[in-house]
Amino acid sequence: MENQAIIESFSDFKEEKNIDRVTLMAIIEDALRNQLKKKYGDDENFDIIVNPDKGDLEIWRNRTIVADGFVEDDNLEIELTEALKIEPDYEVGEEVSEELKLIDQGRRFILAFRQNLVQKVQEHDNSIIYKKYKDLEGEIMTGEVHHVRPRAVIIYDDDQNELVLPKDQQIPSDFYRKGDTVRAVVKTVDLRGNKPVVILSRTSEKFLEKLFEQEIPEVFDGLIIVKNVVREPGDKAKVAVESYDDRIDPVGACVGMKGSRIHGIVRELGNENIDVINYTSNTSLYIQRALSPAKITTLNIDEENGKVEVFLKPDQVSLAIGKRGLNIKLAGRLTGYEIDVYRDVDEDEDVELTEFSDEIEAWIIEELKAKGCDTAKSVLDLTVEELVSRTDLEQETIEEVRSILRSEFEE
């Protein structure tokens, strides 16, 4: 019973790791053989009988009987006199099996055995966690915030496994307290030493794609396919969707009546503005849809260099570019083209100065407007000297402004 008592004391932690008894006993045998090999130099002449039902084990050492005084290896051979103490009818040349008790191996042996056992249990546990989450890369996980660090939030899943949500994988508006529930996608699973490190992300395109899959039944069922996703986390996103069923409007199905379906996704992403567009293999039409809500007049596509020139009416330019240039930036990433925007104006037309806010700083526009120059032609009608005398602007600045304005009326 001594072996069983010691093994039971070692296996107290198995409940925390959720290891079944059969697996634990296999790990115990492996750890024990390692320790026997260290002490005796070899473990091949040992038989270890594990009984997982009783939680017990037996250790038997097999040695060959030799004449007294002829023992060359204490681990493999035993003198006849010693063998006869075990069984009185043994003879030289026979093999004798002797049961060993753990408690007789000494305190240092048992402590080292325990340390080895704990290490192997941890390795087993780590391998289970690694495989589980490696299979879940790209999938959404839900967990609870355990503690918040400056550079990361530590999250525990239902099995109390540690997951990491780094600061750079959080949406800028995210704010967490201990106990909060968090949804994020499994970005990567790496091994650092023997420990698996699970990195989560809320900023990746995959997270938004999987949210569509979770929240929109037609996407989950495969009736609507998410073709591409681009994001500036927390600000704006564009999602291209396609339906293989002509009866289904993919954009309408994703957005829902008055935005009812997409509202939950927007809220999850910190009110990120999501444009859902209908995917098409027609490059020209795809670029036009990607620049929505702007309406394009014409465009020239340079397939070889991956560039496109887009011409719009002056009042559509700011819509195409978007706040902080996000709309055109995301449209370019979505379509894979470098997009250049040009104002489409006739020689007889004039353009409000405010339409040039993407190229001319606002304070310069205000300075010109204050002097009565509120359109492009009203500025071009004056000479550089006249503008210098009327405004507080430097000659170099005025020449640069005139150059920008003049280019709008050139062929």
From TrEMBL:
<keyword id="KW-0806">Transcription termination</keyword>
<keyword id="KW-0804">Transcription</keyword>
<comment type="subunit">
    <text>Monomer. Binds directly to the core enzyme of the DNA-dependent RNA polymerase and to nascent RNA.</text>
</comment>
<dbReference type="Pfam" id="PF08529">
    <property type="entry name" value="NusA_N"/>
</dbReference>
<dbReference type="InterPro" id="IPR012340">
    <property type="entry name" value="NA-bd_OB-fold"/>
</dbReference>
<keyword id="KW-0963">Cytoplasm</keyword>
<dbReference type="GO" id="GO:0003700">
    <property type="term" value="F:DNA-binding transcription factor activity"/>
</dbReference>
<dbReference type="InterPro" id="IPR010213">
    <property type="entry name" value="TF_NusA"/>
</dbReference>
<keyword id="KW-0889">Transcription antitermination</keyword>
<dbReference type="InterPro" id="IPR009019">
    <property type="entry name" value="KH_sf_prok-type"/>
</dbReference>
<feature type="domain" description="S1 motif">
    <location>
        <begin position="138"/>
        <end position="203"/>
    </location>
</feature>
<keyword id="KW-0694">RNA-binding</keyword>
<comment type="similarity">
    <text>Belongs to the NusA family.</text>
</comment>
<dbReference type="GO" id="GO:0005829">
    <property type="term" value="C:cytosol"/>
</dbReference>
<dbReference type="GO" id="GO:0031564">
    <property type="term" value="P:transcription antitermination"/>
</dbReference>
<dbReference type="InterPro" id="IPR015946">
    <property type="entry name" value="KH_dom-like_a/b"/>
</dbReference>
<keyword id="KW-0805">Transcription regulation</keyword>
<dbReference type="GO" id="GO:0003723">
    <property type="term" value="F:RNA binding"/>
</dbReference>
<dbReference type="InterPro" id="IPR036555">
    <property type="entry name" value="NusA_N_sf"/>
</dbReference>
<dbReference type="InterPro" id="IPR013735">
    <property type="entry name" value="TF_NusA_N"/>
</dbReference>
<dbReference type="GO" id="GO:0006353">
    <property type="term" value="P:DNA-templated transcription termination"/>
</dbReference>
<dbReference type="InterPro" id="IPR025249">
    <property type="entry name" value="TF_NusA_KH_1st"/>
</dbReference>
<dbReference type="InterPro" id="IPR058582">
    <property type="entry name" value="KH_NusA_2nd"/>
</dbReference>
<dbReference type="Pfam" id="PF26594">
    <property type="entry name" value="KH_NusA_2nd"/>
</dbReference>
<protein>
    <recommendedName>
        <fullName>Transcription termination/antitermination protein NusA</fullName>
    </recommendedName>
</protein>
<dbReference type="InterPro" id="IPR003029">
    <property type="entry name" value="S1_domain"/>
</dbReference>
<dbReference type="Pfam" id="PF13184">
    <property type="entry name" value="KH_NusA_1st"/>
</dbReference>
<dbReference type="InterPro" id="IPR030842">
    <property type="entry name" value="TF_NusA_bacterial"/>
</dbReference>
<comment type="function">
    <text>Participates in both transcription termination and antitermination.</text>
</comment>
